[in-house]
Design a protein that fits this description.
The C terminus is likely disordered. A hairpin with a 4-residue loop joins strand 16 and strand 17. The strands form six sheets. This protein has a seven-stranded mixed β-sheet with strand order 11-10-7-8-9-16-17. Strands 12-13-14 form a three-stranded antiparallel β-sheet. The longest helix has 31 residues. It is built from seven helices and 18 strands. The termini are far apart. Helices cover 33% and strands 24% of the residues. This is Putative transposase.
Length: 299
């Protein structure tokens, strides 16, 4: 239960006694005990729920530690939020197209309302409300995917996660549309920061490394020039064929892992339902490549 001090003016307005405080029942138990920071209460419009956030300072010795020494690599994309490959052979794909379409629709509506404003005006209550709704909806999904993914990786014994440093890629190689998606919609840097916080809770190390060529390189034979990407599929003359983002994360993993990388199993796919990430029943074409194999990779 939360007890919140209330100013005298509000007490008089809402009929609270002089020594009375606002008491709120909460659902859920805090994960950590320690020195409590400033409590922040926000309203989540997408789920019609009030949420409380409070940082807690705890000794390093009280944080979780990895269950094993496995490795994972992430491909953060425009159409799929995260494609992840784990050295155990597990793969995860968090789909983002539906989320982006809702973001785009809200952006279009904001632009329409702005075009109808009187000269000299640039915003309105309706426009500001749409901006807040758009940001909260995106951040809700972004925070949820970070926690859902890290919890799955922790259960797999992952100790190190590699994520691409996209600074140069975003500035020079991606299309304008992809840049807009990653910068404005996914807020790449904010997502990586959130991911780092959750990894820290579980004692997992998050490292940024260059992922140049991973979206074009075949994970089986290393071919780059001859591979062809069409929408979500990457094909290679050697016969390998797979989901482009999952293939990129696998190639990235094999490049960075110091030990053995197991053959990739059929990936788990997740869709956002405005509240949580749930398993998708839709089959993913060409997700299992023609040439699965165990590869031992050194730095």
């Amino acid at each position: 239960r939360l007890e919140i001090p209330v100013g005298q003016d509000l007490k008089e307005e809402y009929g609270l006694g002089y020594h009375e405080r606002l008491r709120l029942e909460v659902r859920g138990n805090p994960k950590w005990d320690g020195k409590q920071g400033r409590l922040e209460i926000t309203y989540d419009e997408t789920s019609d729920t009030y949420r409380a956030f409070q940082p807690v300072t705890v000794p390093d010795s009280r944080q979780d530690s990895p269950l094993a020494d496995e490795t994972a690599a992430l491909d953060v994309g425009a159409n799929n939020i995260v494609a992840c490959s784990v050295s155990t052979g597990s793969q995860y794909l968090y789909e983002g197209r539906d989320l982006f379409e809702r973001f785009r629709e809200t952006t279009t509506e904001i632009a329409r309302l702005q075009s109808n404003l009187p000269e000299g005006r640039y915003s309105s209550n309706r426009i500001r409300r749409l901006y807040r709704q758009r940001t909260r909806r995106r951040d809700h999904a972004m925070n949820a995917v970070a926690r859902d993914l890290v919890e799955r990786l922790y259960d797999k014994g992952v100790a190190t996660v590699y994520v691409g440093d996209l600074t140069d890629v975003l500035e020079s190689n991606w299309s304008v549309r992809a840049n807009a998606k990653t910068h404005n919609f996914w807020a790449f840097r904010a997502f990586i920061n959130r991911l780092a916080y959750v990894c820290e809770e579980y004692g997992i190390v998050l490292e940024a490394r260059t992922e140049a060529w991973t979206s074009q390189e075949c994970p089986d034979c290393g071919e780059r020039e001859g591979t062809v990407r069409h929408e979500d599929t990457l094909t290679c003359p050697c016969g390998s064929e797979g989901h482009a983002d999952l293939t990129a994360s696998e190639t990235f993993l094999k490049r960075e892992a110091s030990g053995e990388v197991g053959p990739m199993a059929r990936p788990s796919r997740f869709k956002w339902d405005d509240h949580s990430w749930s398993a998708s029943s839709r089959a993913c074409l060409n997700e299992q490549r023609a040439n699965p194999q165990v590869v031992s990779v050194g730095r």
